[in-house]
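Example record for the data management plan.
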Amino acid sequence: MTTSSLSAGIDAIMRTAPVIPVLVIEDIAHAVPLAEALVAGGLTVLEVTLRTPCALDAIRAMRQVPGAIVGAGTVLNPDDLAAALDAGSRFIVSPGLTPRLGEAAIKSGIPFLPGTANAGDIMLGLDLGLTRFKFFPAEASGGVPTLKAIAGPFGAVRFCPTGGITPKTAPDYLALEAVLCVGGSWMVPKGAPDVAAITAAAKAACALRG
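Corresponding structural encoding:
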């Protein structure tokens, strides 16, 4: 698969909804109700971070929910990539970018959203043929002003800012031409899923682009 087709795949995923929920699932019993609630609210692209022992099983369970596009986040190396692929992930997200991970992701053919926080990271990605990135950690890296400055020299690059974003700040990011979506976790409080509340929060998130 060419890098241009990979870029098209991740671009389509990023344009599906204005917010990608970033999920840390600690109890496998929460996985399906959580996915159903988010999908019912219009957020169909779900990033399950590989930060917990049940994350891969959660991906396997959630991908069975009709309408859900489930991917793996916190993919750090080719071993994580292989595990995510085996669990049925439809895209992967990493907090940073290394040549080793980038090359393995491209070879696998899966849509890939690597993390970047500076121009050097973006140039590394461009060298690999990638044009879609996660700006991470967004708020800690300077927020909207920093992203505007970084994006300036890279006209064809588009971003999903993630890290510290709230419903109040998300519209400021989404107003930028270089931003296709944002990542956030505010829709999903810790603990057992409150399905009605999560569905309502997802609907509100879908309306953030205006």
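Summary line stored alongside the record: The mean pLDDT is 96.
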